[in-house]
Amino acid sequence: MKILRILLLVFLPVQIFGQYISFNPDTVKAGRFDMGKMWTFENPPVEYFSETYNFKPSDEWLEKVRMAALRLSSGCSASFISEDGLVMTNHHCGRNIIYKGQNEGEDFLRDGFYAGAPENERRIPDLSLDQLIVVKDVTDVINEAMAAGKTDAEKLSLKDNKIDELISEGQKENPELQYTVVPLYNGGKHSLYGYKKYTDVRLVFAPDLRTAKLGGDYDNFTYPRYGLDCMFFRAYEDGKPVKTENYFEWSEKGGEEGELVFVIGNPGSTSRINTVAQMEFERDYINKPVVDWLKDLYGIIEAQVLNGNTENYKLVAELYSIGNGLKVYEGIYNGLNDPYLIARKGAFEKKFREAVSADANLKEKYGHLWDEIAQNREKIKPVAAELFGYNINKRYASELFKAAAAVVRIAEERKADPAKYTEALLDSIASAFYPAASDKDLQERYIQVQVNIINRNLVKNTELIKMLFDGKTGQEAKNHLIKNTELDDPAYVKELIKTNPDDILKSDDPLIRFFVTARSKLTEYQKLNKSLNERDEINNGLMGEALYAVYGETIPPDATFTLRINDGVIKGYDYNGTRAPVMTTFHGVLDRYYSFKKRFPFNLPPVWENLPKDFDLSTPLNFITTNDIIGGNSGSPMINKEGKIVGLIFDGNMESLTADFIYTDEKNRAIAVHSQGMIEAISDLYGAKDLAKEILQGRR
Question: What class does CATH assign to 39-128+199-271+558-697?
Answer without folding.
Answer: mainly beta
